[in-house]
């Protein structure tokens, strides 16, 4: 495992994304909160863990958790050389406050100049050779990859970053922790040779390189809204512009999914308390079976998901997006868009994290269900939606069995 050398003690309120990963009640690795259900860490923290992992969040002191979260599954990019990235799913969602907050991630188009100062944080071994009880952080410069490769005999790949200086570095037990630039996570503590020595710099997984994969895991599929919460009761807030201030509350008593394999991301929820229709609660008309939407048709997508500020919106937001020709969309997505899916979006106009399952509308008719995509608002990658017309008959069978 890798730790902070040459750093200072810091308060979790300044690093609310930081979490400690615990194995057998001892510090094992670090990680970062990237959504209410997921934590980012290094693959080797998962591969080498022979016991269940627990996450301590919302705390400056790793052994005194503000909240405890059990890890129920993990997703690794693969732990081969140069692919030291993993995502952990927690059973108990993170409740965001001043000590727990998701960190925005670098995107595929982001580049980092040599010499840029970054911050790495963790509870790992310090100059004294002991673990730190208190969260620590140190500022380190990004190092030229070619220069870093001279020290490491050419093993540093395009999927990795080098950072550090003499006496300032991550170290043992900092593995999986975040390397942050201007408030966004640029890297994941991976490995190195020694800690803060004069020759070898710390090696980090490059978030920008893995950003598309990370995004796919977070927004994998809208049946995923149901399937990923099978052990947690779902509640619906209706009749409100503000998601946290419901006009009415409805408990979900059952769910039916078409399936959660690729390209079939649709689910129907049945509530215990029926909706009472008024000016704030009304059923929406669905696109009929066989309905066709022409490319360039302007549609509207609605939700409370992440905005340009990388934060969930308190108030309901809507944006107009053009329908994209499926053939063009398939060029970007390497042929993975099925006839059961619709593509829509443009640069800086898109659905995003937290919008999954929401409606795509044309003239008051729901034509799509927010499903997945790469990034949010990227020119080359429009959002992907389940095509309501394709699933129309199945939906009707669930409503009127």
Automatic annotation (TrEMBL):
Compartment list: Secreted
Domain of life assignment: Eukaryota
SUPFAM superfamilies attached to this UniProt entry: Trypsin-like serine proteases
Chief location category: secreted
GO BP: proteolysis
Signal found in the keyword field: yes
Peptidase S1 domain: residues covered: 4-219, 221-400
GO molecular function, one term: serine-type endopeptidase activity
GO cellular component assignments: extracellular region
Pfam families (alphabetical): Trypsin (PF00089)
Annotated Gene3D superfamilies: Trypsin-like serine proteases (2.40.10.10)
Keyword list, A-Z: Disulfide bond, Glycoprotein, Hydrolase, Protease, Secreted, Serine protease, Signal
PANTHER family referenced in this protein's UniProt entry, alphabetically: AT26814P-RELATED, POLYSERASE-RELATED
Family under the similarity heading: Belongs to the peptidase S1 family.
Name of the protein described by the UniProt record: Trypsin epsilon-like
Source organism per UniProt: Ceratosolen solmsi marchali
Gene for this chain: LOC105365736
């Amino acid at each position: 495992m890798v730790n902070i050398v040459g750093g200072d003690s810091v308060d979790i309120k300044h690093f609310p994304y930081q979490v400690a990963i615990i194995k057998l009640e001892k510090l094992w690795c670090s990680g970062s909160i990237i959504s209410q259900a997921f934590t980012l860490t290094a693959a080797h923290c998962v591969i080498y863990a022979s016991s269940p992992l627990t996450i301590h969040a919302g705390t400056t002191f790793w052994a005194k958790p503000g909240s405890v979260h059990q890890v129920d599954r993990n997703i690794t990019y693969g732990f081969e050389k140069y692919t030291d990235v993993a995502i952990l799913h927690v059973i108990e969602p993170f409740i965001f406050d001043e000590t727990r907050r998701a960190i925005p991630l670098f995107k595929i188009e982001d580049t980092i100049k040599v010499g840029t100062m970054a911050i790495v944080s963790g509870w790992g071994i310090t100059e004294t050779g002991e673990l730190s009880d208190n969260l620590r952080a140190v500022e380190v410069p990004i190092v030229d990859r070619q220069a870093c490769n001279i020290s490491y005999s050419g093993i540093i790949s395009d999927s990795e970053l080098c950072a550090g200086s003499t006496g300032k570095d991550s170290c043992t037990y900092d593995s999986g922790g975040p390397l942050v630039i201007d408030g966004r996570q640029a890297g994941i503590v991976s490995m190195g040779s020694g800690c803060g020595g004069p020759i070898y710099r710390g090696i980090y997984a490059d978030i920008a390189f893995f950003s598309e994969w990370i995004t796919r895991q977070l927004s994998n599929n809208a049946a995923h809204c149901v399937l990923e919460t099978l052990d947690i009761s779902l509640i619906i807030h209706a009749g409100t512009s503000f998601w946290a201030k419901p006009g009415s509350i409805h408990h979900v008593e059952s769910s039916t999914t078409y399936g959660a394999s690729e390209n079939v991301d649709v689910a129907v929820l049945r509530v215990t308390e029926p909706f009472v229709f008024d000016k704030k609660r009304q059923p929406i008309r669905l696109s009929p079976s066989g309905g066709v939407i022409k490319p360039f048709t302007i549609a509207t997508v609605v939700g409370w998901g992440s905005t340009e500020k990388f934060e969930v919106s308190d108030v309901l937001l809507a944006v107009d997006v053009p329908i994209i020709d499926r053939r063009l969309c398939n060029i970007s997505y390497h042929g993975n868009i099925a006839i059961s899916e619709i593509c829509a979006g443009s640069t800086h106009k898109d659905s995003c994290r937290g919008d999954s399952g929401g409606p795509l509308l044309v003239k008051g008719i729901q034509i799509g269900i927010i499903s997945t995509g790469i990034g949010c608002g990227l020119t080359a990658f429009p959002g992907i939606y389940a095509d309501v017309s394709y699933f129309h008959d199945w939906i009707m069978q669930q409503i009127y069995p």
